[in-house]
TrEMBL record:
Protein name: Response regulator
Polar residues: compositionally biased ranges: 134-149
Record-linked Gene3D superfamilies: 3.40.50.2300
SMART domains in alphabetical order: REC
InterPro entries registered for this protein in UniProt: Bact_response_regulator, CheY-like_superfamily, Sig_transdc_resp-reg_receiver
Record-listed 4-aspartylphosphate modification sites: 55
Species name: Abyssobacteria bacterium (strain SURF_5)
Region of interest (Disordered), residue spans: 126-149
UniProt keyword terms in alphabetical order: Phosphoprotein
Amino acid sequence: MMISRNICVIDDDASVRKALDRLLKSVGYETEIFPSAESFLERPHFRGIDCLLLDIQLPGMSGIDLQKQLTSSGMNIPTLLMTAHGDPTMHEKAAKSGVANILRKPFDKAILLDAMDSIFQSKTRSSEFHGQAISPNDCDSQPRISDNP
């Protein structure tokens, strides 16, 4: 039995949002999509979010800045960052922001789904053994960059 998970996709590219929305729904996830960090922050509350799928380079507030703001506010939502840019400095900042994983666009759907499975397996183990949700820093895998085209 699959547990229903709510994934928020934040990306300024409408075609990416649509493709990820379709993919995630096709494997049983619930999704909410947002074109910017600011539109996500307008959400009435942040309860019930199981994972953020967050683009690094967004107009206005960047994905890294959003992640930092959420973390500093005590909202430890497991986050997968996405980027189409190979800037090592940006990847280093992203890795230090406490994300669960960094995926380089375009990525294969299997890589995304494996990364999400890893987050949810870790979250389940943490809840079973400690009775609390995990923070992105508690994931089994270290942040990594996927170079799969």
